[in-house]
Amino acid sequence: MSKIIFVTSKNCELCSKALKKIKPLTYFLPMTVVDVSDGYDEYLLRIPVLLKNEEVIDEGIFNIWKIIKKLAN
């Protein structure tokens, strides 16, 4: 099973929009939402970031079709 992680931060408008886009995927894939300050400091200037097994799937303004394609692989 793949480990899907959504890296976010408090008061991040872009993160809120990204989470709304990927919310339907959480019905099919378990996803962990983590704060960037919880050991993900390397993504501080790139949030929101979606990771699959430590590989960046998408960041910034999310593209749902790009995400689905990469998650299917």
Structural overview:
With 73 residues, the protein is of the alpha+beta class. The protein has one domain (4-72): Glutaredoxin (3-Layer(aba) Sandwich). Helices cover 26% and strands 26% of the residues. It contains 2 helices and 4 strands. It has helices at residues 13-22, 64-72, and strands at 4-8, 31-35, 49-52, 55-59. Strands 2-1-3-4 form a 4-stranded mixed sheet, covered by helices on one side. The model has no long low-confidence stretch (mean pLDDT 94).
Task: Report the order of strands and helices.
Answer: EHEEEH
**Which CATH-level-2 architecture?**
3-Layer(aba) Sandwich
Strand order in the sheet with the most strands: 2-1-3-4
Ranges where pLDDT stays below 50 over 5 or more residues in a row are none
User: Helix coverage percent of residues?
Assistant: 25-40%
Work out the helix count: 2
**CATH homologous superfamily identity:** Glutaredoxin
Q: Oligomer, anyone?
A: single chain
CATH topology: Glutaredoxin
CATH class: Alpha Beta
Shape: globular
Beta percentage is 25-35%
What distinguishing features does this structure have?
single chain, 73 residues, alpha+beta, Glutaredoxin, four-stranded mixed sheet, 2 helices, 26% helix, globular
Briefly characterize the structure.
The protein has 73 residues and is of the alpha+beta class. It has 2 helices and 4 strands.
